[in-house]
Amino acid sequence: MKRRDFFKSAAVVGIASFFKTNALGSVLTGEPVAVHSQPDLVAVMGGEPAVMLARALKELGGIGHFVKKGQKVVIKPNIGWDRTPELGANTNPELVGALVKMCKGAGASQVIVFDHTCHDWKKSYTNSGIERAVLAAGGKMVPANDESYYAEVDFPRGVNLKKAKVHKALLECDVWFNVPVLKHHGGAKNTISMKNLMGIVWDRSFFHSHDLHQCIADAATFHKKPALNIVDAYRIMKTNGPQGKSASDVVKLKSLLVSPDYVAVDAASMKLFSQVVPTDMKDVRYIALAEKNRVGTQNLEKLNVKRIKL
User: Fold this and answer.
1) More confident residue, 244 or 166
2) How is domain 3-309 classified at the architecture level of CATH?
3) 289-307 pLDDT, tens digit each
4) φ and ψ at 103, to 5 degrees?
5) In angstroms, what CA-CA distances link 218 with 130, 214, 223?
6) In the prediction, which pLDDT does 15 show?
């Protein structure tokens, strides 16, 4: 699709205007913001996943700003479901593969990718297209389907979640990237960066039985923060999440949002999602709960937000 046709597409009505503002305005409000040397959040629209990732990271200082030679890197996408890429249930494999390649190019000694899947892990890894993309880029897929892969960690700032078993790959790495897909979710309302943390723990059932939203916010207090949260909004599942039923549940937005701040990137992602499906931010309670627990800020107008149309 040509660029001019993309921005006229019915699938992105309202999205192009989301990316319009004055040079000193907020990505979301158009209000003046302080100018900093490096953005707090980058939003890119209109390109393929690898191209948008490269542009976002350029704005943030390049991959070498986050990954040093010899480091062990973990990438945590959403690979929860035995679904093909066009159904939007998992993170876009092209995006994951591109990030693996960048990390290897920066000198990472090892790049490990995993998720504690909901469907059979082998089928999810394969049919999502992520395993193939990771291996082609020089990365390594590791399983997360057995309790022996996890070690108990305290969450001293958690309200309901005080401890949990976290995947050892994450505990042992030097740096990690959280790479969720933006989509609808029946219980949490939306899956974004903080919801993606349910894939790093062993006992997900605890979340569902002890206030899902509070536990998601508690998980975001995990002491080992991701270098970046890279939200895949190339395809978004607008309904019937988290698995989806058919391609009719999916809208192609060709967008990417990147920030080290869980709360900011989830708030921005919700505003983008709301351009397609009107959604009240208050219904995604874990965003405000995480902000209350000093995880990050959803006060986006006070941040330096850089947005780019390709």
Assistant:
1) 166
2) 3-Layer(aba) Sandwich (3.40)
3) 999 999 999 999 999 999 9
4) -65, -40
5) 28, 6, 11
6) 60
Q: What is the pTM of this model?
A: 0.91
> Which runs of E-coded beta strand occur in 65-122?
72-77, 110-113
pLDDT reading at 217 higher than 80: yes
Q: Closest Cα to residue 201, out of 135, 267, 118, 120?
A: 118
- Smallest CA-to-CA distance from 86 within 297, 244, 266 is with 244
Residue 281 DSSP class: G
Task: Identify the pLDDT of residue 134.
Answer: 98
Concatenated DSSP letters for 56-121? HHHHTT-GGGT--TT-EEEEEE---SS--GGG-SS--HHHHHHHHHHHHHTT-SEEEE----SS-H
Q: Return the CA Rg of the chain.
A: 18
CA distance 310 to 305: 16
Q: How many CB atoms lie within 10 A of CB 245?
A: 11
DSSP class of 32: B
Q: Tell me which residue of 269, 283, 293 sits closest to 218, measured CA to CA.
A: 293
Q: Has residue 27 got a pLDDT over 60?
A: no
Residue 220 per-residue DSSP state: T
Question: Which of 102, 109, 119, 5 lies closest to 62, judged by CA?
Answer: 102
Distance from C-alpha of 179 to C-alpha of 177, rounded to nearest angstrom:
6
CA 81 to chain centroid: 16
Cβ–Cβ < 8 Å for 306, 42: yes
- From first CA to last CA, the distance across the chain in angstroms is 13
The structural domains of the chain, with segments of one domain joined by +, span: 3-309
What is the predicted pLDDT for the residue at 19? 63
Report how far residue 7's alpha carbon sits from residue 184's, in angstroms, rounded to the nearest whole number: 23
Beta partners for 43? Answer: 257, 307
pLDDT of 6: 43
CA contacts within 13 A on the Cβ side of 114: 25
CB 293 within 8 A of CB 159: yes
